[in-house]
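Below is a filled-in request sheet from our internal design queue. Each sheet records the structural input a requester submitted and the sequence that came back. We keep these sheets so that new team members can see what a complete request looks like end to end.

REQUESTER: design group, bay 2
PRIORITY: normal
MODE: inverse folding
CHAIN LENGTH: 183
BACKBONE (tokenized):
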């Protein structure tokens, strides 16, 4: 008869430890990844589109850049620009409206799977030709169906080659105009 209370106490202790083990397994995890591609080439006085493709791990989602409530952390890209170039017209995809087990009556605007963000690299007329690197970060908060994890910043960088050419570029193949992301 004494074995039953001991077994129940052991089961309670094991279950109480499970959330801590689960959260420690996600502590260093990024939840979002990127497959690097080639540099961006743009002529002085012109602009060229650049595409950032991120992949959210299966079983997770991140808030869209326009979440449904102020309390949710939006996904955003920020850049640190070298001297003479600018990044303009950052365009985020529309979020998917989804409900989750913690509140099936409320829909949240989220991204899952592949997330494609577009921007424009702008080089003014008086810029000097040459190579440079743009640094930045993707800020996001990952969640699964049961919990949200601390916000993360994924460092990104991509190379820009400023040329004196006409600003025309060959047709892009795949992600040829996509930047590099460093994990």
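RETURNED SEQUENCE:
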């Amino acid at each position: 008869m004494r074995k039953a209370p001991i077994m129940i106490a052991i089961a309670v202790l094991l279950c109480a430890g499970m959330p801590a083990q689960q959260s420690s397994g996600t502590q260093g995890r990024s939840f979002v990844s990127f497959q690097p591609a080639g540099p961006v080439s743009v002529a002085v006085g012109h602009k060229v589109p650049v595409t950032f493709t991120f992949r959210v791990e299966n079983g997770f989602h991140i808030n869209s850049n326009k979440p449904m409530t102020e309390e949710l952390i939006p996904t955003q890209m920020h850049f640190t620009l070298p001297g003479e170039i600018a990044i303009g017209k950052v365009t985020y995809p529309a979020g998917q409206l989804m409900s989750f087990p913690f509140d099936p009556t409320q829909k949240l605007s989220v991204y899952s799977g592949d997330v494609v963000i577009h921007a424009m690299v702008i080089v003014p007329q008086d810029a000097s030709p040459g190579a440079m690197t743009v640094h930045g970060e993707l800020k996001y908060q990952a969640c699964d169906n049961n919990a949200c994890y601390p916000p993360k910043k994924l460092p990104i960088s991509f190379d820009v080659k400023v040329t004196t050419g006409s600003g025309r570029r060959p047709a892009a193949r795949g992600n040829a105009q996509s930047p590099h992301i460093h994990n």
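SHEET NOTES:
- The helical segments are 3-26.
- The first helix runs from residue 3 to 26.
FILED BY: M.R.
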